[in-house]
Amino acid sequence: MMPGDSSMASLVQRIARQALVTFRKTPAVGDEASKSFLENHGKLRSLMSEVRAADLKLVPRRAEDSDAPPAQHPYHRGAPPVTYMHICETDQFSMGVFLLKSGASIPLHDHPGMHGVLKVMYGKVRISCFDRLERPGGGGDALPRAEMGALRRYVLRSTGEYTEESGPCVLSPDRDNLHQIDAVDGPTAFMDILAPPYDPDDGRDCHYYKVLPGDGVKDSEQTEKEVWLMEISQPPEFWCGGEPYPGPEVCL
């Protein structure tokens, strides 16, 4: 295979190359995306729609192979409820696979200034997406985000279930940027691209939130609902372990 020839490249390799092209120059927060970015993002979504567990050499796990996550593990003892397979990372994006055990959740969290594309490999997930509600004229109606425990008004944009047959779930800096991911009816796994990667030193740390009592999101039919969110520490029942990625090597 000649350098740059994609005819023999694995689907995972082609996705990584397209992500590199797509996120080489991302629109600034609040700016309109360029025609070039939108075209490349569409190509990336199309490739992500094609990928399946077999392309990553993932073997779908059964419920009996997946221990239920412990209710409370403040010292992170025992097997983690969620694990991550690292595929590749550059300054522009990171790519990997999250694997959730039966009943596990990735708590409500944000992606500051980041784009994301998520594609289920097997099983089913429920994803609830939120955005900060800006009042007319900008600003907000609460303390700055950096204040732990600060309250801010958000809007529930969508709640939906995704399987391997579903298209990708997409987030951007100003749309669907906060989400909670729940495993439904057994273990599940999804491929995840984030651009740029999390980097606390560059203002892209992961923050966790909870919906205040009375503002629940149980009704999947009710969207565009305003809720109060409070920033919290990482929930003690959630932590993420690592495991080897078995799929094709990615070279960038």
UniProtKB/TrEMBL annotation:
Keywords, sorted A to Z: Iron, Metal-binding, Oxidoreductase
UniProt-listed SUPFAM superfamilies: RmlC-like cupins
PANTHER family per UniProt: 2-AMINOETHANETHIOL DIOXYGENASE
Statement: the UniProt record of this protein carries the keyword Oxidoreductase: yes
Gene3D superfamilies, per the entry: Jelly Rolls (2.60.120.10)
A cellular component term, taken from the record's GO annotations: mitochondrion
Annotated coiled-coil segments of the chain: none
Protein's name according to its UniProt entry: 2-aminoethanethiol dioxygenase-like
Record GO terms (molecular function): metal ion binding; oxidoreductase activity, acting on single donors with incorporation of molecular oxygen, incorporation of two atoms of oxygen
Entries under CDD domains matching the protein: cupin_ADO
InterPro entries for the chain: PCO/ADO, RmlC-like_jellyroll, RmlC_Cupin_sf
Keyword Metal-binding: yes
